[in-house]
Design a protein that fits this description.
Blueprint lengths: L1 H11 L14 H4 L28 H7 L24 H6 L8 H7 L2 H8 L22 H8 L7 H7 L4 E4 L10 E4 L17 H10 L3 E2 L2 H9 L27 H4 L9 H7 L27 E8 L4 E7 L49 E3 L1 E4 L4
Parallel strand pairs: 4-6
Antiparallel strand pairs: 1-2, 2-7, 3-7, 4-5
The structure holds calcium ion.
Calcium ion binds next to loops.
Amino acid sequence: MRSLRTASLLLLTACCERPAHDDPPPPSAISVSGNGSTQASPPLPSGAPRASASARPPASAVASQAASAPALSAPPLPSADGRPLHLETQEDLLALMPIRTYSEKEIKRKGDPLEFLKKNVGPGSPARMNQGNKEIASHVISREQCLQGLQGVVLQTDEQKQTCGADYMVPVYKKGDASKARFCIDIFEFPNRPCELPFVWAGPTQARIYCEMQGKRLCAQEEWVQACKGDPEGKEDWLYAYGNELDLSACNTNKPARTYGDPLCDPDTVSSTWKTCHSNTEPAGSFPRCRSRFGVFDLHGNVAEAMVRFDPEENGLVSQLKGSAFFYVDVARKHNERQKEGARETYPDHCAHDPRWHVEPMATAWHVNYHLGFRCCKTIKPR
Ligand SMILES: [Ca+2]
């Protein structure tokens, strides 16, 4: 059936080579481093604050790392301000992604990061990073509903802010030893803002640039997996961020293509994908149960995520695309289920699932899509 075939295509093969005018920036720019029916709707936030204790590291251990640093306070939850959920202007999109300070010397050498952003971020085209084609996207949960669901939830403690040096990041580590945390990870998909829609239409190469513009870096696969399966107190790993049983209602993975317009999706080219494929995302953090024990939201579902992986055969970093997207219900199978012979292709989605979709050297990892976003990480500086 068209709908089933399409969903599979979307996950594995969708997109394509960008037309010439859509090409991502050249290497020199890269170095800027530095209608869905309510019947099928996913659950709305309950409104009841989710217990936050399990997402908090042992405070004393983290605090000890930060004892000598100037005090930083975790940001308060923003208020709804009347902006449309699916943003319509370049100014509004850029307002969600503040960048680090660049010196005059650095700008002279690498180019002006603001000019880069103006060229590569904006609504209305797959040639720029944005929140998808607003004309056809279906969002069920409002920003206000999402914010209501996060009321009372501790997204980031002051200690975590101190350790990570950035808003909405948490340190991740193994064996329950917070003193050995070596990296922090964004709580939300890029642009890492509570109750904003994630950005799509940026390939891994560009994603790396955007992370570096914020003084971060694109997450490595091992980091993403640990943030998903691990426990801050060192308890047993889980298969999924939310537990050990596949639960398609826990995250934004439950939007069947037949209900949400994707039977019409034609992923043959970037242009046809933009015109016909729906970025049916929800505000980041809308699903209270879709949160790992480290406190990271939407590792499953919403948008799939680009990251990097060291490939021994390439002897270098390659792009790694992981995680499910909003239409995953159509192609899901449990972690221990086998692909049925002759049946349509299905995919697991446990934290450690290691698909090899669109693997490319990072310098030329330009695969873009309407359901592919990313997440940034940051190395913790020794104190
Ligand atoms: Ca995701």
